[in-house]
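Input/output pair, single chain:
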Amino acid sequence: MALRVGGRYAARSPQLLFASVDRRRELRHDLALRSAEEVAEELGAMKGALMKIGQMASYLDAGMPESFRSTMARLQHDAPPMSPGLAAAVVSEELGSAPEKVFTRWDPLPFAAASIGQVHRAITRDGRAVAVKVQYPGIARSIESDLQNVTLLRRIVGAAFPGLDTRSLVDELRDRLREEVDYRLEADNQDLFAGYYEGHPVIHVPQVVREVSTARVLTSELVAGARFDELLGWDQRERDLAGETIDRFTFRSLYRLRAFNGDPQPGNYVFHGRGRVSFLDFGLTKRFTAAELEPLQDAARLLAIEHDAEGFRHALERAGFLQAGAPVTTDMVLDRMGQFYGTVLRDAPMTITSEYASSLFRRYFDARTPLAPYTNIPRTYVILQRINLGLYAVLGSLNATANWRRIAEEIWPFRNGPPSTPTGEAEARWELGKRAIA
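Output:
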């Protein structure tokens, strides 16, 4: 692929050299678009871990060329699918019969295709409309092969974070991705989230249909609604409400359920209007103990509530994000590590823009800071770091506005603040109902 793209640029060099300014701009745009399409097609065909990189590239950094980002966005839910016959063979192997016999109705053409599997519409024998995720044959071996070649990954990560324990980071990613290809584990994770959010006013997680689910076939209730690219065309009020729901889901799951869906890419959301969002894909899930979350809660409390810079630093040291006794000032620690709390430091409405999200992304990977040799991502929190990247990238794409501090105070266990929005009021009534049932 690199040779093909490079050859195309080399062949166009004489045209670029002698073209007018406007024509040169047109030729370069055409080259960039064709190259992006080729990269997207190649990553989509390869599936697995490398396709996930393409998905992330489509939304994490708004500073990338728009033609590249929009082309890569296809990988969020529209990758090249496997043939209908191949998908049917997987269903037959897993469920014991052809899909047309297992289900009353079966659509042989997938309506979504992602990095691990593709999704088909079907009707169960008892009349339920379902989405059937069928795993690509050989994808487990493919991901294992990708993950075996860790030397390059460790070198790249080590260059971005000079002090990082790359071994523990890569080992954690390997374990989580290996889990992702076992749909039985994903079903357990999805059941956990669906049970917790049952009856929630704006958050919905589809129920798993266990009797037609296995290690390589996962069947859930079918969800109809708008995709992320459609949401971007809705009015700003709708985008703000959707952003608030995504924020609430992320941090409520973390602080209250003590579980985190580690794949917050836009293709995993379905929107229904008035802030109602369905959340899909729970393959990359991390569960936490109360002890593991304690230093994170302390860090948020000490920085945002108590304005205790030294205490914030010590909380990061306890968590393992910062080397204890590092020869750097606390002001440096605040400048580098405190940036991820920027949305909750002020009790005022704030618009999260793509530029803001991109600046976080770029500063996160800035190896030139004096603090870099003394920072680390502890294995426990590797997947959690997606909050700092994925969540803000999504909210930035929406230009979402809210008083994020007030919403956080509702959810922080050490604060338990009053509802600050109509969605918060509805959520408080839901939570009260859950307690009454319990």
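Residues 21-46 form the longest helix (26 residues). The chain has 19 helices and twelve strands.
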